[in-house]
Amino acid sequence: MSLDAALETFYVEAQEHLELMDNNLLQMDDGYINNDILNDIFRSAHTIKGSAGIFGLTHIVDFTHVVENVLDRARDEKIVIEKPLIDLLFKCRDHMVTIVALSIDEYKQQVEVQKKGQLLIEQLLPWADKQASLEPINENKVEGKSSIETGGFWHISLRLSEDCLKNGMDPMSFIRFLSTLGEIHRIVCLTDKVPKLVKLDPEQLYFAFEIALESASNKEEIENTFMFVQDDSHIVILPPNASGKDFADLIEQLPEDNRYLIQVLKECGTYKSLDEKHTEVQDNATLTEISTKPINLAEKPTSNKSIKQTAPSKQIRIDSDRLDHLINLIGELVINQQRVDLLAGKTRNTTLIEAVDDFESFTEQIRDAALNLRMIPIGGTFQRFKRIVRDTAQELGKNIGLTIIGAETELDRLMVEKIADPLTHIVRNAMDHGIESVEERIVSGKSPKGELILKAYHESGHIVIAISDDGKGINKEGVRLKAIEKGIIFQHTELSDHELFNLIFHPGFSTAAQVTNLSGRGVGMDVVKRNVEALQGSIEILSEKGKGSEFRISLPLTLAIIDGFHVECSGTHFIIPQATIIECLDLASHVEIDERNCINLRGDMIPYLTMSDVFNLQLQNRDSDNALVSQVSMAKQPKEELVIVQFGGNLAGIAVERLHGEVQTVIKPLGPIFKPLKGIGGSSLLGNGDIAFILDIPQLIELAIDQDKRMKHINKTQE
Amino acid sequence: MSQVAEQLSTSTQRSQYLTFSIGKEHFGMELHQTREIIEYAGITEVPLMPQFLSGVINLRGEVLPVIDLSVRLGREPITIHKRTCVIVVELHGYEQYCVLGLLADAVNEVVELSLSDVEDAPAFGAKIRAEFIQGIAKVKDDFVILLDAEKTLSPIELASLVEAELQ
Amino acid sequence: MASIKVTQKRNNSTEISFAGGLTIYSVMEAYQQHFETFTFKQLVVFKLDKIEEIDTAGIQLITSIIKSLLEQGSQYQVSSTSEPVKEFSELFDLKFLMNYEVQSSLGVEYVS
């Protein structure tokens, strides 16, 4: 039995609950305090405590118990939720994040963490139910005693999902756990569902169980044992004082023959028939006040059903390594498919070619479906910023609100992970340097509350994440002076706004006169830029003085596979990302406008670059034989083709020698050595095994502009 | 004591080296850093790269950079011929894991060297930056230059050379 | 992995001995290799003393074997058992695995 798998599930679920708690606390912080939210927060704490208990993670149980108690009292309106309590609950939630990440042994070694927990508990005490918080463990005992006093047993009826063995859940572990809650008085393992060998599926669960448990635990603790079982499991837990009717209902629900069940239940010793119900139960109910609790639970209409609400709905969790492996395999499939395509083309066999075409369309669908598995909405990451913005604003003494747009936009999981850090940096930067203090805002006639917008959307095959603020905008002169001071530019260098703003990404650049502990520290925007570029993305700044700034990060949809257009220049193969391509033209048929490498495209002046010039390509002689042939054809001045691409709203042309057509390609990174090389974002294998380079269009154009400038500079100095 | 001497004395006393030749010179590299040797079957040049970076090859679906070690060590570029081969080297440096190919005229043998076989790198005379050399060993009358692959092929240094070329 | 030996003896009995781990990870293989089709002699003797690890899936397989042999009118006997098997049988209160006598029923079964 893999307890590890269950423990892993616990960690994942605990994290989800903590995330949920954070969101709900934020809502309360915004003034939305209602029962639903309180219930949700309570349930999160309660679930974490309960599942931590199953795994014996007492450090989590002990701390969360007090938090849960406070929440419970808030829910019962015994205490009022106020700002200081919300702040404290935030801290408690953060502490829970810390301790959930620690094993018991680790926790025992971290005295600081323990102290912090104790401090938080002390702070919680005024809100907590004194008795419960001082003696957290006693609560159950008090309650338990009374249920033992009743002299009865809990009855637990288990019909677990047929698939639970395959999923690493063995009923034996539940039963073992139950025996830690008390004593299993009697267990009947129902073997009647086990088929004969011929019909046996050895990995399916056939056993069913009826259990009589003598335990001091309350119903919730017993229920928590089964927190991780599948949806289609059927579990009924009847308290010691359940009535004959409860058993009658149970028998009705169970699939087995009624008479057989009665026989089994009698054997368990818990069974009560309809006639012998009330007297005993009522006696117990009046015994102590606390003991009414399990009765109430039992009589709730939902409680006799299985405890489905704790199990996640239609989702399954997959180890991300397995998913990555699948995606890699599909990458290989795509390459092989192209090889088949190439070979089929050579045969000129139309039937074969058609079949291969179908094959191709399916491969594409498989690829898309697989990549989709990896896509997750950016919303989760955005949500986290609510908290960051709240805390940072408090720290800075500013009043700042956060608006989130496009949380449902999906992004490759890897990308979501890696974009969080750069985003945090930009958000903090915007709050620190962009948005003014309340006083400043009032003076400049703005609303005292600054606004930060996080927005995600699709644009021409890319995902754009924009972070905008309504602050003071970037001080161009300030940036300029700073850049001169730092020796990044010369006194007289003329720069466009775009170039000026880009200086902010220069290593070591930081405009804040005063280095705060939030942003600044010299490391900053250059790291952001590098991180974004590592994801094959780009970043752009728009800013207007007095109105605010916007940082726009543009990312590819996925890191693994792209749709590209295969072109060739002087024997070197290139892939242009399909999403950037507008159209292809025959260069000769368009009139070149003076010497500026521009063409007239339906009235628009479009600059173009010649790839063999930018990359300084000459035909390679290395590959001996065909070099001669190619040189001959070279002499014939190969026809030039022009690919029109768009980037950041601009159009540009790229002149190449041959167009080969659309391909799907798997991006193979070129490795650290080639990092300084601009314009090429990676490599990819063609169907015949040749290597092609994937162009990074914005970088390529930047490279061409740089080269152009340098040429002009050389020309000038020569004059 | 040379680095190799230290290593040899502290660890197993003996180390295995793969020896190969470029032109008339013989070189050695620790065997555990080499992964395999493949036939030279063409190379795809990468635009704008300095001369020591010959290009990239497709090794069973993996795209690897190939280094002209001869240029890297300050000599003339290697001449490609029928027997040219590519030594695939795997580096587990502190920076990052890196796999690359080295062009060589011929791969000779695997030798086991002990402390006494290895001499310190000469301060001058080898015309190779001293830090690239672990030591010099005499194998059957030939002098073999034992290279420090981590230093000679450091991805960070190679990248900075690429950057310099692009400036 | 489970290692399973099935011996058809001359005295009209079948001996099935299990060794190693009989768990969810090995039951499918065990089932397909040995038990998908199976004929039993008059008495089936289970030797379980070499089982190092067992779980619900393993116990179910044995239960299914017993059901099939009972169906054919054979009897069975658990001749030896190991600590893990004993522990498991006690946990689930599986009397048919705790009794070393020759038996001809599973115990708690629905009798209509």
Automatic annotation (TrEMBL), chain A:
Superkingdom of this protein's organism: Bacteria
Q: Which GO terms describe its biological process?
A: chemotaxis
**EC class:** transferase
UniProt entry tagged with the keyword Ribonucleoprotein: no
List, alphabetically, the Gene3D superfamilies matched: Histidine kinase CheA-like, homodimeric domain (1.10.287.560), Histidine kinase-like ATPase, C-terminal domain (3.30.565.10), HPT domain (1.20.120.160), SH3 Domains (2.30.30.40)
Its cellular-component GO annotations read: cytoplasm
Which residues are reported to carry the modification Phosphohistidine? H46
Q: Name one Pfam family in it.
A: CheW
Q: Does the keyword Zinc-finger apply?
A: no
Keywords in alphabetical order, please. ATP-binding, Chemotaxis, Kinase, Nucleotide-binding, Phosphoprotein, Transferase, Two-component regulatory system
Under the heading CDD domains, the entry gives:
HATPase_CheA-like, HPT
Q: Where is the HPt domain?
A: 1-103
Signal peptide annotation: none
Every Histidine kinase domain range = 352-559
Cite the GO molecular-function annotations of the record: ATP binding; phosphorelay sensor kinase activity
Q: What are the residue boundaries of the CheW-like domain, all occurrences included?
A: 561-706
Enzyme Commission code(s) on record: 2.7.13.3
Q: Which InterPro entries match?
A: Bact_Chemotaxis_CheA, CheA-like_dim, CheA-like_homodim_sf, CheW-like_dom_sf, CheW-lke_dom, HATPase_C_sf, HATPase_dom, His_kinase_dom
Catalysed reaction equations from the record: ATP + protein L-histidine = ADP + protein N-phospho-L-histidine
Q: What is this protein for, i.e. what is its function?
A: Involved in the transmission of sensory signals from the chemoreceptors to the flagellar motors. CheA is autophosphorylated; it can transfer its phosphate group to either CheB or CheY.
Concerning PANTHER family, the annotation shows: CHEMOTAXIS PROTEIN CHEA, SENSOR HISTIDINE KINASE CHEA
Q: Please report the name of this protein according to its UniProt entry.
A: Chemotaxis protein CheA
Which species is this record about?
A: Pseudoalteromonas aurantia
UniProtKB/TrEMBL annotation, chain B:
UniProt-listed InterPro entries: CheW, CheW-like_dom_sf, CheW-lke_dom
Residues forming the CheW-like domain are 14-158
GO biological process assignments: chemotaxis; signal transduction
> Which Pfam families does its entry note?
CheW (PF01584)
Gene Ontology terms: cellular component: cytosol
Spell out the SUPFAM superfamilies in the cross-references. Answer: CheW-like
Q: Which PANTHER family match?
A: CHEMOTAXIS SENSOR HISTIDINE KINASE-RELATED, CHEMOTAXIS SIGNAL TRANSDUCTION SYSTEM ADAPTOR PROTEIN CHEW
- Protein name as catalogued: Chemotaxis protein CheW
Species of the source: Pseudoalteromonas aurantia
UniProtKB/TrEMBL annotation, chain C:
Q: What is this protein called?
A: STAS domain-containing protein
In what residue span(s) does the STAS domain sit? 44-112
Q: Which PROSITE patterns match?
A: STAS (PS50801)
Which InterPro entries does the entry link to? STAS_dom, STAS_dom_sf
Any stretches that span the bilayer, and where are they?
none
Q: Which Pfam families match?
A: STAS
This protein's species is: Pseudoalteromonas aurantia
